[in-house]
Amino acid sequence: MKHIDSNTHVRGESVYLDDIPLVSGTLYAAVFDSPVAHGKIKSLDTSEAAAMRGVAGIFTSKDIPGENQIGGIIPDEELLAGTHVHFCGMPIALVVADSEESARAAVKKIKAEFELLPIITDPREAKEKGELIIPPRTFQLGDTHAAWSQCEHIFEGRTETNGQEHLYIETQGAYAIPQENGAIRIYSSTQGPTAVQRTAARVLGLSMNQVEVDTTRLGGGFGGKEDQATTWGVLCALAAILVKKPVKYALSRIEDMRMTGKRHPYSADFKIGLNKQLKIVAYEATFYQNAGAAADLSPAVMERTLFHCTNSYYVPNVKATAYSCRTNLPPNTAFRGFGGPQGMFVIEAAIATAAEQLHIPASDIQEKNLIQSGDTFPYGQIAVSEANECWSKTNRLYGIKKLQQEITDFNNRNPLRKKGIALMPICFGISFTKTLMNQARSLVHVYTDGSVGISTGAVEMGQGVNTKMLQVAATIFSIPSEKIKVNTTNTYRIANTSPTAASAAADLNGKATEIACTIILQRLKQLAADDLKVPADSLTLKEECLYAHGEKTNWSWKKLVTAAYVNRISLSELAHYTPPDIHFDATKEKGHPFTYHVYGTAIVAVTVDCLRGIYEFDSVKVVHDFGSSMNKLIDIGQCEGGIVQGIGWMTMEELLYDQEGRLRSNALSTYKVPDIYSVPKEIIVQALETTKENAAIFRSKAVGEPPLMYGIGAYFALRNAVKAFNPTATIPFDAPMTPEKVLMSLYPVPALEEIKEEEKKP
Ligand code: MTE
Ligand code: HPA
Ligand code: MOS
User: Fold this and answer.
1) Do domains 266-433+588-746 and 439-577 have the same CATH topology?
2) Dihedral angle over CA of 168, 172, 176, 182, nearest 10
3) Assign residue 315 a region: left if phi > 0, alpha if psi is -120 to 50, beta otherwise?
4) Burial, 54: exposed, middle or buried (Cβ in 10 Å; 0-12, 13-18, 19+)?
5) Is 705 among the residues known to form the active site?
6) What's the pLDDT tens digit per position in 628-653?
7) Are 137 and 321 in contact (CB under 8 A)?
8) Which of 264, 301, 305, 508 to mutate to test ligand 2, by most ligand atoms within 8 A of the CB atom?
9) Distance in angstroms (rounded) separating the CA atoms of residues 211 and 208
10) Using an 8 Å Cβ cutoff, are 733 and 650 in contact?
11) How much distance in Å is there from the Cα of 53 to the middle of ligand 2?
């Protein structure tokens, strides 16, 4: 089954926020945002801007009728800066005008003066100064302190991973239309319609039932619109209420890159101990998360870093501590993997350090330590593992040792081009780590002509969740997909939704849809069972025909639906689903937080041009644990997209904030993401075929985020290629490994060191 949006996508007919037909009288908003990273607002002069042609209003924090507060987890973030600004790009004033051009021109005429305050951009410095978003947390298993004495080899090190711009193709935006009796409708490009609704109500002083949020689809979210779409939805709603006119704001790319948060950069320290047999005996890690100026989702992201700090390995003695550090950068936020990749990078770096020191391939250590069913994760959950299955199938299909030998041979033959290879096993927990968020509802209507409408809390952002919802209904009702429509995500139809995130939307909303359809089907069957005088459970629907004990009856789908209507039996159902048996005790840091885990193994191979430092990825070969995929086309697409996005994070995407907290890589000319020329020449994704039961929808495991983490292998493949050229290179674990960094590490740079020494002399 194809992605149900494929036709309209290709024809340019899919409706995104910017395609919504505008109501007459619509005004346009633009934000005046802080040019400094930290300061007290001394003066704000909007008079010249207000006098400009077409300007309908300029609003500041003083105009907010409710609470000037948008913080979701912690109430620490103002919508519009009151007395202080905490990051470059923090919204201060909102201009509303009769065109986008007038609004943006007026923004340029706003004058502000600031009393500058000290700026922190480094998370370790923030931690030293006590600038923490929440108290630190520690996950612990066994006793690392006692375990070091059992280790044959102990290695320590430090790692840095940089942030990542989401670069959804559709920028952030919203369109708010005032409704009768003071209510408001907000069209929002958000992963979390309920978050927009709740926050708009809080800021406007309305009750939630007066705020309707509607989302058709997103041109990508990747986590960047889980929390941070709220700002724009609420700003439009605020302006719309104040000017009593519809207000729209679709950010330009530069505004979006400047004002929104990104993946969290992390700095970390590790210590790893192995025994003679290369078993990891003990592992310690300390994570410094660069949260930015407000909490946003940072506490939850930090928690997932801890959950995934041992990746796909069993380590009997673990101690991992994380600090969420407040800096003067835009608040960082969810990004595919949600802190998991940042945790996994560190243990991979620890293993690479051990391998380099012991002169063995890292894969020798990785393979020996893969988690097995029955092993305990540091947070207490017992693994039901596919790690070894994925690894051994990878080995069967591609021959790990053979590939490594081919690379060695190539490197021996080629003086100026070197290849590197790395294995990347993954393990990702499926469920929101905040247990209460794991709930969803689905509203299914069967209409009297036999067509079906589905509404859920899931937001379509390219990942194909609507296609999966449709497949669920088509399968349960056994009717063709043409008879089914998936509706927009709307807070009036489905209330109190969790954001579409944590890769869990298909499971949660799919299971709710399955329940709703099954309940309606049960009613239809009962009707026919009474007529046919057979038990309802002897009836099955196949291709719109009803069978009793396998024998075709004269009941069709259409006839069932009509009969139900005539007999005044409900053809609608609102169903609720929550996964059973998940819990977590944050005081003990133990529990069973995940419904299940997704596993996989990738082999990443790269060729480095050792004259120029540039590189090309030859291949990514994967065995991925789909459970039993309900849509191979979509799921393989998710793998390919995730892999490329992960490689981008690890290799070429270089976010740069200067000392003043200003984003220098603020446009597509200075921030490079993978394009068609830089994607791997070959991506092969094979499914691990399993018959094991799992709690996913139709046994089709969540697939949205896990594949991104295969991209981490790209960093280590590159590192190995560089080492093949310059075996004595000391390469800091500092991702991304840009071509510049590759070039610098290919050659010893005594000349440069000498110059630096010269400069130091008085
Ligand atoms: N795929 C596309 N095409 N666009 C996206 O924005 N977001 C990813 C992933 N795949 C994303 C995507 C992220 S961060 C998540 S959490 C999941 O999709 C969310 O959708 P799901 O729960 O339906 O997998
Ligand atoms: N994953 C993704 N998004 C989230 C989570 C999570 O665990 N918790 C809250 N938002
Ligand atoms: Mo995804 S980072 O959970 O939106």
Assistant:
1) yes
2) 110
3) beta
4) middle
5) yes
6) 999 999 999 999 999 999 999 999 99
7) yes
8) 301
9) 5
10) no
11) 44
Give the N- to C-terminal CA distance of the chain in Å, as an integer. Answer: 71
The tens digit of pLDDT for each residue in 674-693 reads 999 999 999 999 999 888 99
**Structure token digits, residue 11:** 């024809």
By alpha-carbon position, which residue is closest to atom 7 of ligand 2? 432
Ligand 3, atom nearest to 336 Cα: 2
Pick the CATH number of 6-117+166-259 from 3.90.1170.50, 3.10.105.10, 3.40.50.1860, 3.40.50.300: 3.90.1170.50
Do 31 and 58 contact (CB within 8 A), yes or no? no
Quote the tokens at residue 309: 């700090």
332, 333, 338, 428, best to mutate for ligand 2 pocket (most atoms within 8 Å of CB): 338
Q: Whose CA is nearest to atom 18 of ligand 1?
A: 704
Strand partners, 118: none
Structural fold of domain 439-577: Aldehyde Oxidoreductase; domain 4 (3.30.365)
Judge whether residue 302 has pLDDT over 60: yes
**Do 683 and 640 touch, CB atoms closer than 8 A?**
yes
- The catalytic residue among 573, 660, 705, 740 is 705
The ligand 3 site (C-beta within 6 Å) comprises 191, 223, 226, 334-336, 338, 501-502, 705
**What are the backbone angles phi and psi of residue 439, rounded to the nearest 5°?**
-155, 150
pLDDT(753) > 90: no
Q: Give SS3 for 22.
A: coil
Domain ranges (residues) in the chain: 6-117+166-259, 266-433+588-746, 439-577
CATH topology for the 266-433+588-746 domain: Aldehyde Oxidoreductase; domain 4 (3.30.365)
Compute CA 440 distance to the chain's CA centroid, rounded to the nearest angstrom.
19
- In the reported structure, the alpha carbon of residue 588 is separated from the centroid of ligand 1 by a whole-number distance in angstroms of 31
β-sheet bridge partners, residue 157: 270
Ligand 1 centre to CA of 120 (Å) is 32
Residue 280 three-state SS: strand
Task: Give dist(CA 419, CA 619) in Å, integer.
Answer: 11
Single pTM value for the model: 0.97
Q: Which of 569, 477, 472, 481 shows the shortest CA–CA distance to 511?
A: 472
Tokens of 222: 């990747």
Residue 61 has pLDDT above 80, yes or no: yes
3-state secondary structure 651-695: HCCCCCECCCCCECCCCCCCCCCCCCCCCCCEEEEEECCCCCCCC
Q: Given pLDDT bands bounded at 50, 70 and 90, which one contains residue 752?
A: low
3-class state of residue 446 by DSSP: strand
Choosing from 260, 263, 303, 336 the residue with most ligand 3 atoms within 8 A of its CB, the one to mutate for a pocket test is 336
Atom of ligand 2 nearest to the CA of 499: 10
Residue with tokens 């390469």: 731
Which atom of ligand 3 is nearest to 503's Cα?
3
Mutating to test ligand 1, I would choose from 169, 463, 467 the residue with most ligand atoms within 8 A of its C-beta, which is 463
Query: Cα of 486 to ligand 2 centre, how many Å?
Result: 24
Task: Report the nearest atom of ligand 1 relative to the CA of 223.
Answer: 14
- C-alpha of residue 546 to centroid of ligand 3, in Å: 41
**CA-to-CA distance for 21 and 612, rounded, in angstroms?**
50
- Measured by CA distance, the residue closest to atom 6 of ligand 2 is 432
Ligand 1 site residues (CB inside 6 A) read 220-223, 336, 461-463, 465, 500-506, 638, 641, 702, 704-705
